[in-house]
């Protein structure tokens, strides 16, 4: 198993030995047991094609539809432009690998591993990858998002 150091002071990859894990209270790993935390190990990740603001990308759901939040990993190819878009709910993005450019009415920022940003509901913005990227997205669920034109008006793409 590999853990990715994502903090600004630690951008190295650390190798951790695989450990055999025993289920508690008869629950299998990844199953719900109200008396314990929920876990997902790397071999349980399920990547699939998913739509976001009119684009099809690879997504791995980690926590979905419970407590009004969702957490998911997204793989985004290099030099990919998600276009100008908006969300009706809040979204938080943590960059695990790669590099991105975030642009909104306040300007442009370049972000890399360990950087994160929070998008308030209704904020129009654009995200572009500068390198192949892996991001952790935590958001309100359901998250309603849609492309907008240069004037900030909703377009037909979804």
UniProtKB/TrEMBL annotation:
SUPFAM superfamilies: RmlC-like cupins. Residues 76-127 form the Cupin type-2 domain. It comes from the Bacteria. Signal peptide: none annotated. InterPro entries: Cupin_2, RmlC-like_jellyroll, RmlC_Cupin_sf. Gene3D superfamilies: Jelly Rolls (2.60.120.10). It holds the Pfam family Cupin_2. This is Cupin domain-containing protein. It comes from Streptomyces malaysiensis subsp. samsunensis. The lineage of its organism: Bacteria, Bacillati, Actinomycetota, Actinomycetes, Kitasatosporales.
């Amino acid at each position: 198993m590999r853990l990715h150091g994502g903090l600004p002071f630690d951008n190295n990859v650390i190798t951790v030995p695989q450990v055999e894990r025993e289920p508690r209270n008869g629950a299998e790993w990844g199953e719900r047991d109200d008396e314990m935390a929920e876990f997902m190990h790397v071999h349980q990740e399920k990547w699939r094609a998913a739509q976001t603001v009119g684009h099809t990308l690879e997504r791995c759901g980690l926590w979905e539809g419970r407590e009004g939040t969702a957490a998911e990993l997204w793989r985004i190819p290099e030099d990919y432009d998600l276009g100008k878009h908006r969300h009706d709910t809040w979204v938080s993005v943590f960059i695990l690998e790669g590099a991105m450019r975030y642009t909104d009415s306040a300007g442009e920022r370049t972000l890399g591993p360990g950087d994160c940003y929070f998008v308030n509901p209704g904020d129009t913005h654009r995200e572009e990858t500068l390198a192949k990227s892996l991001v952790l997205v935590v958001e309100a669920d359901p998250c309603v998002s849609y492309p907008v034109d240069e004037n900030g008006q909703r377009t037909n793409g979804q």
